[in-house]
């Protein structure tokens, strides 16, 4: 596609449930990033992939959060046993490479945990 | 560690210049960025500067970098109501590809 696509755009779930958020990067981009943005805050880094491997997962808050990118393209962010504090907009971005300038962001998936 | 700080709000009149400031802590930063976020939309890259540059100009935008003070600014000339948005400063550390973002500065442009 023309840009980074994220689905779903909105997800409402109950505390304790499992959630998957999907990111489809720009074709040919080898680097893919996940960020989380709470209301009134800047994006908070979670994890980034170079190809299929997680190059830096230092931002994942705890072991309930996990992300995969099995074929080096689409990525899924998985959140187990969701908590109300997980409510945020989850942003995905892609770039031609991990060291090049521009990250292209999707519009985000808004997660609400009731 | 890495940290990026910005003031939270700026209000200007249409036609004036806006200056948004940012400070960062990682002296090994290679690139510094300015992103714009409009309500309900994703982040859009406005401009970026490599750490060995002092200034970059792109149409109405001027970026100034003071590496000694770890201070970055974005000047928008002839600010328009369409420039109203949240502006994020971000740094890319020398080690690895992640960007660290500031909290964002909400720019309000009054007619």
In short:
The model of chain A has no long low-confidence stretch (mean pLDDT 93). With 114 residues, chain A is mostly beta strands. Chain A contains no helices and eleven strands.
How are the SSEs placed, and which strands pair?
The complex is a heterodimer of chains A (114) and B (111).
Chain A: E1 5-7, E2 10-13, E3 19-24, E4 31-37, E5 44-50, E6 53-56, E7 65-68, E8 75-79, E9 88-95, E10 104-105, E11 109-113
Parallel strand pairs in A: 2-11
Antiparallel strand pairs in A: 1-3, 3-8, 4-5, 4-9, 5-6, 7-8, 9-10, 9-11
Chain B: E1 4-6, E2 9-13, E3 18-24, E4 31-37, E5 43-50, E6 55-58, E7 61-66, E8 71-76, E9 85-92, E10 99-101, E11 105-110
Parallel strand pairs in B: 2-11
Antiparallel strand pairs in B: 1-3, 3-8, 4-5, 4-9, 6-7, 7-8, 9-10, 9-11
User: Mean pLDDT across all residues of chain A, rounded?
Assistant: 93
pLDDT below 50 for ≥5 consecutive residues: which ranges of chain A?
none
Order of helices and strands of chain B: EEEEEEEEEEE
Share of residues in strands of chain B: over 45%
Number of strands of chain B: 11
The major sheet of chain A is characterized as:
7 strands, mixed
CA-based shape of chain A? globular
Which terms would index this structure?
heterodimer, A: 114 residues, mainly beta, 7-stranded mixed β-sheet, 4-stranded antiparallel β-sheet, B: 111 residues, 6-stranded mixed β-sheet, 5-stranded antiparallel β-sheet, 57% strand
Structural account:
The complex is a heterodimer of chains A (114) and B (111). With 114 residues, chain A is mainly β. In chain A, 0% of the residues lie in helices and 48% in strands. The termini of chain A are far apart. The model of chain A has no long low-confidence stretch (mean pLDDT 93). By secondary structure, chain B is mostly beta strands. Chain B has no helices and 11 strands. Chain B has strands at residues 4-6, 9-13, 18-24, 31-37, 43-50, 55-58, 61-66, 71-76, 85-92, 99-101, 105-110. In chain B, the strands form 2 sheets. In chain B, strands 2, 4, 5, 9, 10 and 11 form a 6-stranded mixed β-sheet that branches. Chain B has a 5-stranded antiparallel β-sheet with strand order 1-3-8-7-6, with no helix packed on it. In chain B, 33% of the residues are buried. At the A-B interface, strand 4, strand 5, strand 9 and strand 10 of A face strand 4, strand 5 and strand 10 of B.
């Amino acid at each position: 596609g023309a840009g980074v696509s994220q689905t779903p755009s909105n997800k409402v779930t109950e505390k304790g449930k499992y959630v998957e958020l999907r990111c489809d990067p720009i074709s040919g981009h080898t680097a893919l990033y996940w960020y989380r943005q709470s209301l009134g805050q800047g994006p908070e880094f979670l994890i980034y992939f170079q190809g299929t491997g997680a190059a830096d997962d230092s931002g994942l808050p705890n072991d309930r959060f996990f992300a995969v990118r099995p074929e080096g393209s689409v990525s899924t962010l998985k959140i187990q046993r969701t908590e109300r504090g997980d409510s945020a907009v989850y942003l995905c971005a892609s770039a031609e490479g991990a060291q090049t300038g521009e990250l292209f962001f999707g519009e985000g998936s808004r997660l609400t945990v009731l | 560690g890495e940290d990026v700080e910005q003031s939270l709000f700026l209000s200007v009149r249409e036609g004036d210049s806006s200056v948004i400031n940012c400070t960062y802590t990682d002296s090994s930063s290679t690139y510094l960025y300015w992103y714009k976020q409009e309500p309900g939309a994703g982040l859009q890259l406005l401009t970026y500067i490599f750490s060995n540059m002092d200034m970059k100009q792109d149409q109405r935008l001027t970026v100034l970098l003071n590496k000694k003070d770890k201070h970055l600014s974005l000047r928008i000339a002839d600010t328009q109501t369409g420039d109203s948005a949240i502006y994020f400063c971000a740094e890319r550390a020398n080690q690895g590809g992640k960007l660290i973002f500031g909290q964002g500065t909400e720019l309000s442009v009054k007619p």
